[in-house]
Each structure stands twice: as C-alpha cells, then as structure tokens.
Amino acid sequence: MTATAPDPSPAPQPDLLPATARALDGVLAREQVASRLPSVVAGVVRGGRLVWTGAAGATTAADGGGPPAGPGTQYRIGSITKTFVAAGVVRARDDGLLDLDDPVRAHLPELDAAGVGGRTVGHLLAQAAGVQAETDGPWWERTPGGGWEELAAGLGAGALRHRAGTRFHYSNVGFAVLGELLGRVRGATWSRVVEEQFLRPLGMDRTSLRPQHPHARGLAVHPWADVVLPEPEHDAGAMAPAGQLWSTVEDLARWAGVLAGRTDVLAASSVAEMSRPHVVDDLRGAGWSSGYGLGLQVWSDGARRWAGHSGSMPGFVALLRVDVATGEGLVALTNSTTGFGDLVRSLQEVLDRLEPVVPAPWAPAAVPADVLQLVGPWYWGPAALAVRARGDGGFELAALQGRARASRFARDGDGWVGLDGYYAGERLRVVRAADGSVGHLDLASFRLTRTPYDPDGDVPGGVDPGGWRPGGGARSGT
Length: 478
What we know:
By secondary structure, the protein is an alpha+beta fold. It is built from ten helices and 20 strands.
C-alpha cells in the first residue's frame, strides 16, 4: 500500500522578488522590536531550497551587543529535536526493526508492562500514550540531566496519566523513551543514529548536541524592563531526545525539504504518515486547529494544513512548519525565553499576498489501462459518484452530487485499498463480466454500478423487477 506526498523533486525555485524580501524583512524587524527579542532569524523554503532569509538583532552579549545574527548562527531548537528522533524511529520501522504496535517493553525490557513499557511505540510517537508530561525531578530544562537508568526507574504505573489512545497529552518523557529505544534497536546512541541517517547525508553540519561557534546566547528578557538575564545551557542527559539539539536556519531549511517529501533519507510515504493527524487537540472547541502526527505537530486553518514542530528551551524559541500540499517551509529562531508572537503567521500572510506558490503546470500523464476502464460515473444505489484517475497510478472516488463517502485508492496486489476517508484500509475489488469488461465494483460489501441499482450488478437484496416508476408505489392495477 502506498500513500501520496508532495513531489519529492520539485522544480528549482528562484529567490523571492526584492519587494517580497523587503516586506518580509520589515515583518521581522517589527517583530524584533515588538517582542523585544535579542535576535531573531527566519527563512522561507521553496522547492527544497532557502529562497529568503532575514535577521534582526545581535546574538550573544548580555548587554545586547555581540555579532549580528544570520542564517548560519546556531540556536537551540528545543522540541524540533523530536522530529529527528521520530524520523529515526519511523525509518527503523521501515527497515523491519520494530512495529509501531509493539509495546515499548519489547525493545526496552527493563520497563514495567504496567507502566510506560506497556504503551506502544506508535502511541508515544503520536503523543497519545498518556505518559506524564515532565520528569518527577527538578526542572529538567534548566538542570543537568541524569542517565537512562535514573529516568527508567520512574516509568512505572505512576508515570501514566491517561488511558492510551484516548486523548492528546504532550509528553517530553515519552520522547526521552523513544530516544533510548531508537538507540537500542540500532546499537548506538540516538544522537549517533540521527547524525548518520539524517544530518550527515543532508549536509547539516551545523546541527549538534551542544552549541558550536557562532551561536546565540540564551537570554530571558525582563517583562517590565529592557534588561536581560543569561539562561543556563547544559546536557539534558536521558531527556536530551526531547529537546537538546542546536541548529541554524540554513540547516533547518534542509530538514524542511525532508518534511516536504524528500525521499533519499526517509520514504515519502513515511513522511506522509508522519504528517497525518493521529490525535487532535480540540477539547475546547467543535473543530480542530492543531494536532499531532508521528513526531510532528500538525496545524490546520480549515483550508490548509502544515506539519512541523515548535521548540522552546530556556533562552530560546524555534518554529519549523511545512505546507503539506505545496512543500513551502518557514523557519524562525530567537534567543529569548518568551519568544515571538505571530511572526510565522505574519510572514505567511506576506508570502500569500505578494508571492504565493505557483503550482506546476498541468501536463498529460500516463494512466494505467485498468484505471482508465474505471473512470467516470458510478452509483452507490441512487447516489452519483465519480472515479477520477490520479497521477500516482491510483484513483479517487468522490461524490458527483451532494455528499457521499470519498476516498483515494492505491493498488494493492491484484486489488485496491483505500488511503483515506471512510474507506481507509478497506478493499475495492473490480468484478468483470464474462467478456472481460468491468461489471461492477465491490467496495467493503457495497456494490457500485454504472447505472443506479443496475440489475446486472449483482446488487445485494436484488432489484425490484418492476424497475423505476413514478411515485414510488405499486403500479396501477395491482
């Protein structure tokens, strides 16, 4: 079974127009002043490359001085670290080293089955395992961390807060467990796995566990005065997979390309799986605007969807998000504990207004002969549907009138399987007539026929021999 994802090899994109770049520079400068940020850097990624980057402020000195910020300046990226850990776990699944339905204890046998050890790998990735948010000890983001044995000792039943799979509950502890698990199945540390599988192949040589020059200094800005306080930097130990990494706009632009579907380090189908919301955080409203995939935060405004992650550690705030449909990415980093406001949204508004992503031109595509036989109108009873071929060799079933169950379908052996919607995971079988032509479609026990309730379509329950008639009643004279 396959899933679609944004084109992993998009056409090269030019730099943004000077007027657009100036407008983005203005947004960044105003945000630096309004939010009183010591420094802030940002970038726009299109077609897998950085097409604009901007910076405002200075990076290191407690008095507000120091060298200017730039796209190569390191900042602590906090929980964006989780996206690398998650990608490593998903790739281990792809390589057959684990299953997302495995209990954690299958790979970390020292953990109690009544505690975190009994929760599944997939639930931990989706922030749906119900594991406690933070450690039992001191504020781990500001104090040196202990080793795995110390952390594991507190992962029994007392570490569980909710029944697995019932709600979104963000857990830094859960990703510390995933980091240990990733290292265990690969026979190395989680950071070495991330370096070998992602950082080195992508040329992300400015992404590291500890800061490397030039880097920004983490600062807290006083809420009522224009003074700053240096924040501590340390090794988080076993909690490092939850938020240890440092990176740059230039490096995160490369990672944005992966989250847009680049396939040389992670399969596009796996990226699509990670970017799909597995749980949503909508307990306060009727709809959802944010959720979680597999190690990725997912945001929606009803018309568009983004995947990526925010990050915060004392002294730093970061955000990386990618438009799931277009692959456009936005990166923003600052060295302030309280961070920026709606910076990324403001940058997006400028892009949409002045230089929106231009879709690739339409061009004819090869369609498999057996798919071409299926296209056109079909009927589920009296409901009109249509099959349309897709560019990936599959097809889409959607309503022609009103509302109806819709899904995309991909080839699966000698049949088809639904990718999304009501029929996700369900089988569609093409039933042929004696002459080899397509007779009807058998979909999860339903019959789809070329005409409404076609009597030749083997409709369960049969079709009244009197056929269609006015008024819906019996014929006159009966």
